[in-house]
Write a structure and sequence with these properties.
The protein is α+β, with helices and mostly antiparallel strands. It contains nine helices and four strands. It has a four-stranded mixed sheet with strand order 1-2-3-4. β1 and β2 form a beta hairpin. α4 packs across α7 and α5 runs antiparallel to α6. The longest helix is centred in the C-terminal third of the chain and has 21 residues. It is globular. The relative contact order is 0.13.
Length: 219
């Protein structure tokens, strides 16, 4: 079985992640490089592991998480779709079984809130992992005067934890937001679509999605 380690060691994957971030830097987007994809990969795997999915599905979720944003090297628009095709071909070249690479393609192609929906356990885990990575470490700009709303909201988040309670069948996104930087309402203005997609993803896995901001349960 092709593993996450095999994917990380692939030079083509490494270059695509670098190129994706290079393009997003020029466009003024938040960080989508190795920091982000490692977090998403780890969280996607942890979600399925906690819910006691087979180890093969866990590994596929980790790989999908690591590759999910490579489409940004083509264009930010429809990056989920172009990334899914890129990932499929790379995984084919390194010898992954067609059934496994198809699962990863489906997950990557459905991770964006504009066009995607949970279509499998891997897809649902990827969505929850990706949408939970909100943090000031993702802000690339150094001049606060140039921040747009996405930068300001991410920068205001000083702590973010994704907790899975298997017994209560809950997955909880727990955020600490510095309201001196932006009000909590701004989070919903920017991320409502992502929050709703996270709810759908949790429902697909048979669990409940909760959002806590500054110790207050909002969903």
């Amino acid at each position: 079985m092709i593993t996450l380690a095999d994917v990380k060691n692939n030079l083509e994957v490494q270059e695509l992640i670098k190129a994706a971030q290079k393009q997003l830097n020029e466009l003024g987007y938040t960080e989508h490089s190795t920091r982000h994809v490692n977090i998403v990969s780890n969280r996607a795997g942890r979600i399925l592991e906690t819910l006691e999915y087979p180890k093969e599905r866990i590994e596929l979720a980790k790989i999908a998480g690591y590759l999910h944003d490579i489409g940004n090297c083509v264009n930010r628009t429809d990056h989920a779709h172009s990334g899914a095709i890129l990932a499929y071909n790379i995984l084919k070249d390194i010898g992954m079984e067609v059934s496994d690479r198809t699962e990863i393609m489906m997950a990557i192609g459905n991770h964006d809130e504009q066009t995607g929906m949970p279509v499998s356990d891997i897809s649902a885990a990827l969505i929850l992992a990706d949408k939970s990575d909100v943090h000031r470490d993702r802000v690339v700009k150094t001049n606060t005067a140039t921040f747009d709303k996405h930068d300001r909201v991410n920068y205001a988040v000083t702590d973010a934890a994704l907790n899975i309670n298997k017994e209560d069948r809950k997955i909880i996104l727990d955020l600490t937001i510095d309201t001196k930087i932006c009000p909590v309402l701004d989070y919903f203005e920017i991320f409502m679509d992502r929050t709703m997609l996270s709810k759908y993803a949790a429902k697909w896995l048979g669990i409940w999605f909760e959002l806590i901001i500054n110790d207050t349960k909002l969903l």
